[in-house]
Design brief:
Distance between the termini: 45 Å
CATH superfamily: START domain
Strand order of the largest sheet: 1-7-6-5-4-3-2
Structural class: alpha+beta
Order of helices and strands: EHHEEEEEEH
Number of domains: 1
Helix content: 25-40%
Oligomer: single chain
CATH class: Alpha Beta
Number of strands: 7
CATH architecture: 2-Layer Sandwich
Number of helices: 3
Shape: globular
Strand content: 35-45%
CATH topology: Alpha-D-Glucose-1,6-Bisphosphate, Chain A, domain 4
Protein backbone atom coordinates (compact mmCIF):
# COMPACT_ATOMS: atom_id res chain seq x y z
CA UNK A 1 0.00 0.00 0.00
CA UNK A 2 2.65 2.51 1.06
CA UNK A 3 4.55 2.41 -2.23
CA UNK A 4 1.35 2.97 -4.21
CA UNK A 5 0.56 6.41 -2.74
CA UNK A 6 0.93 9.08 -5.45
CA UNK A 7 2.52 12.19 -3.95
CA UNK A 8 3.41 15.81 -4.67
CA UNK A 9 5.90 18.15 -3.03
CA UNK A 10 5.14 21.62 -1.70
CA UNK A 11 7.35 24.70 -1.31
CA UNK A 12 6.26 27.92 0.41
CA UNK A 13 8.01 30.98 1.80
CA UNK A 14 6.71 33.31 4.49
CA UNK A 15 8.17 36.42 6.09
CA UNK A 16 7.60 37.49 9.68
CA UNK A 17 8.37 40.71 11.56
CA UNK A 18 10.12 38.98 14.47
CA UNK A 19 13.23 36.93 15.24
CA UNK A 20 13.88 33.37 14.04
CA UNK A 21 13.82 32.40 17.74
CA UNK A 22 10.20 33.59 18.10
CA UNK A 23 9.10 31.56 15.05
CA UNK A 24 11.01 28.48 16.24
CA UNK A 25 9.28 28.74 19.62
CA UNK A 26 5.83 29.15 18.03
CA UNK A 27 6.40 25.91 16.12
CA UNK A 28 8.11 23.91 18.90
CA UNK A 29 6.49 25.12 22.15
CA UNK A 30 3.13 23.35 22.63
CA UNK A 31 1.58 26.26 24.56
CA UNK A 32 2.67 28.90 22.01
CA UNK A 33 1.54 26.62 19.16
CA UNK A 34 -1.91 26.25 20.76
CA UNK A 35 -2.16 30.04 21.18
CA UNK A 36 -1.89 30.83 17.47
CA UNK A 37 -3.83 27.78 16.21
CA UNK A 38 -6.57 27.73 18.83
CA UNK A 39 -6.16 23.92 19.01
CA UNK A 40 -4.45 21.51 21.39
CA UNK A 41 -0.81 20.56 20.77
CA UNK A 42 1.73 18.19 22.31
CA UNK A 43 5.24 18.76 21.01
CA UNK A 44 8.45 17.05 22.07
CA UNK A 45 11.55 19.21 21.82
CA UNK A 46 13.80 16.18 21.27
CA UNK A 47 15.00 14.50 18.07
CA UNK A 48 12.98 11.27 17.78
CA UNK A 49 10.27 12.78 19.98
CA UNK A 50 6.64 12.87 18.88
CA UNK A 51 4.29 15.75 18.21
CA UNK A 52 0.55 16.19 17.76
CA UNK A 53 -1.11 19.39 16.57
CA UNK A 54 -4.67 20.45 15.83
CA UNK A 55 -6.02 18.21 18.60
CA UNK A 56 -4.21 15.19 17.17
CA UNK A 57 -5.24 15.63 13.52
CA UNK A 58 -1.61 16.17 12.43
CA UNK A 59 1.13 14.10 14.07
CA UNK A 60 4.54 12.58 13.61
CA UNK A 61 8.06 12.82 14.97
CA UNK A 62 11.06 15.13 14.98
CA UNK A 63 13.91 14.08 12.68
CA UNK A 64 16.24 17.08 13.04
CA UNK A 65 16.14 20.13 15.33
CA UNK A 66 18.59 23.02 15.06
CA UNK A 67 17.45 25.65 17.55
CA UNK A 68 16.16 28.83 15.84
CA UNK A 69 17.33 27.58 12.39
CA UNK A 70 15.76 24.32 11.24
CA UNK A 71 13.01 21.82 12.06
CA UNK A 72 12.59 18.57 10.11
CA UNK A 73 9.67 16.28 10.94
CA UNK A 74 7.94 13.18 9.65
CA UNK A 75 4.38 14.49 9.38
CA UNK A 76 0.96 13.08 8.49
CA UNK A 77 -2.69 13.96 8.60
CA UNK A 78 -5.12 11.68 10.42
CA UNK A 79 -7.09 10.99 7.22
CA UNK A 80 -4.02 10.07 5.12
CA UNK A 81 -3.40 6.56 3.76
CA UNK A 82 -2.37 4.21 6.59
CA UNK A 83 1.32 4.44 7.48
CA UNK A 84 2.14 7.22 4.97
CA UNK A 85 4.25 10.14 6.23
CA UNK A 86 5.53 13.25 4.47
CA UNK A 87 8.71 15.11 5.43
CA UNK A 88 8.30 18.75 6.45
CA UNK A 89 11.21 21.16 6.76
CA UNK A 90 11.03 24.62 8.31
CA UNK A 91 14.20 26.61 7.53
CA UNK A 92 14.49 29.90 9.43
CA UNK A 93 16.86 32.73 8.55
CA UNK A 94 17.23 36.36 9.47
CA UNK A 95 15.89 38.68 6.79
CA UNK A 96 16.30 42.40 7.44
CA UNK A 97 14.55 43.08 10.77
CA UNK A 98 12.55 39.87 10.55
CA UNK A 99 12.58 36.22 9.63
CA UNK A 100 12.28 34.35 6.37
CA UNK A 101 10.73 30.91 6.70
CA UNK A 102 11.36 28.51 3.83
CA UNK A 103 8.98 25.58 4.08
CA UNK A 104 8.99 22.32 2.15
CA UNK A 105 6.75 19.28 2.49
CA UNK A 106 7.74 16.22 0.49
CA UNK A 107 5.43 13.29 -0.13
CA UNK A 108 1.92 14.76 0.24
CA UNK A 109 -0.68 12.31 -1.12
CA UNK A 110 -2.02 14.00 -4.30
CA UNK A 111 -5.65 13.92 -3.15
CA UNK A 112 -4.72 16.09 -0.12
CA UNK A 113 -2.28 18.45 -1.84
CA UNK A 114 -4.62 21.42 -2.40
CA UNK A 115 -6.05 21.32 1.15
CA UNK A 116 -2.59 20.94 2.70
CA UNK A 117 -1.14 23.77 0.61
CA UNK A 118 -3.98 26.12 1.57
CA UNK A 119 -3.89 24.90 5.17
CA UNK A 120 -0.28 25.94 5.76
CA UNK A 121 -1.01 29.42 4.37
CA UNK A 122 -4.24 29.92 6.32
CA UNK A 123 -3.68 28.05 9.60
CA UNK A 124 0.05 28.64 9.99
CA UNK A 125 1.61 31.59 8.15
CA UNK A 126 -1.47 33.87 8.32
CA UNK A 127 -2.40 32.75 11.86
CA UNK A 128 1.20 33.27 13.05
CA UNK A 129 1.32 36.79 11.58
CA UNK A 130 -2.02 37.70 13.17
CA UNK A 131 -0.86 36.32 16.52
CA UNK A 132 2.39 38.30 16.35
CA UNK A 133 0.51 41.53 15.53
CA UNK A 134 -2.00 41.06 18.38
Amino acid sequence: MEGKVRTKDLKQTAKFACSPHEIYEMLMDAEKHAQFTGSGAKISRKVGGKFETYDGWAYGKNVELVKDRRIVQLWRGDDWPEGHYSTVTFKLSKSGNGTKLEFTQKGIPVQFYKDISEGWKEYYWKAMKEHLEA
